[in-house]
Amino acid sequence: MTPLSFLLTVFLFALAWLVLTKGGKKSKGKFPPGPRGLPLLGNLTQVGCRMHVVLREWAKQYGSIFSIQLGLEKIVVVDDYKLMKEIFNEPAFSGRPQNEVFLGMSQGNYGVINSEGSTWETQRRFTLRHLRDFGFGKNYMENLIQDEVKEILDWLKGEEGRLVNLNRKFSLAVLNALWSITSGKRYPQNDSTLTNMLDSSIRAFNSLSETGLLLFAPWARHLAPGLTGWNTLQASIGEMTSFFKKTVHEHKETFSGDHIRDFVDHYIQEIEATTDPKSSFHQEEGYKHLSATVGDLFQAGAETTSTTLVWAVLYLTSHPTIQEKMQEEIDRVVGNSRLPTLQDRASMPYTESVIFEVLRMSSLVPSGLFHRAIENKEFHGYVIPKGTWIIGNLWSVHNNPEIWGDPENFRPERFLSEDGTKAKKHEALVPFQVGKRACLGEPLARDTIFLFLASIFQKFQVGPDPENPKLDFEPMIGFILVPKPFNVVMKERH
Description:
Layout: H1 3-22, H2 44-47, H3 51-62, E1 65-70, E2 73-78, H4 81-88, H5 100-105, H6 117-134, H7 139-158, E3 163-164, H8 167-183, H9 192-210, H10 213-216, H11 230-254, H12 263-273, H13 283-318, H14 320-333, H15 349-362, E4 371-372, E5 377-379, E6 382-384, E7 389-392, H16 394-398, H17 401-404, H18 442-459, E8 460-464, E9 488-492
């Protein structure tokens, strides 16, 4: 194909997409202002790889509510956390993007992340209730996490004095803990099933990170499925979906209402009790939602929680005084004869403040998960048409000097009460997003981060690579902000 014919094909595909998907969607009223873009591409070439940074600069020019166009998608950007809370609590803006990429990730609009309307409300309510009953803050869940903590501590003892990279170890440990809570099954950390699950997840995230075309111009997959990452994404999603469906099938075959083993069993129990054919829990429809929900919990929780732990190690390694102060608190509250527990957390405000500051500084998912208007709706003088995507720039909120004073500095004390006895979560700290669709796994993520972090720094002093002591805080750009690979040296404290 010649360059000219390629461009013509791109144009024709885009024109067809525009006619089919955007026709008849004009709305009356004032739309938020924003920068001019290119035909077909919109502002894609302007936002580049650091979209959250560019959006922050545009907010200074156009205000806290403005618009951009990425590919053929009109997007409203919100840059103020109070406005985010308002817009994301509005039912009219509670939808999710419905293109091929998002539908593929959610097994066809099932589960809790990408479903909408009353189906989403029902599925979320059930999932949240049973995760609370079965896991959040309970001894059973804590014991499952502690099993992974103990394994990683044993491994670190064998690596004392050597250079270690904790990225993959954290990923496998967190994934195993999450999978144990969800499906009741724990794998050895070198098990191929566990490592294959992790690798498939990483490939899926990477394929979305390599190019924005898939998210904002999914028609491009027809032209260059390899270059856009479509082939990799499809293969990775297929591998994970097969595994989730297999897990559900195995539970279905061995299910006993007298012995509920895990979250999947709770869900099957609900399916078995549902007789209303209109219910999203009814028979095969229920099993489709279950498989997708298992995938949602896996994909949303494992990589983000483990990456937060990596950021925490990076910041504490580069700030030895803060590391030492946190360890003094751990020693005072916990001692060394046992591991930290969730019950200790209320007595460890400095450790909790360190975690808050890591969440703020890392801003792991800088723009959160996208929302979609499911009806025409006015918001602060602007009319947002049905189908418009909505982004909250969480990274910008976390780096706003008007809120934090010195956002560029790693300073946990900003979250401490004046007398230092309590950790105070600032309302502008929104790493798990806000509103009706805020991350339902926040309690589990925070519990996991606390148990891993407090236990590791109870047992080990963590220092930089003596041959390469300068640490890089500039993240690798992608769907989530991940630290560049780095090594540390572990030294037992007691």
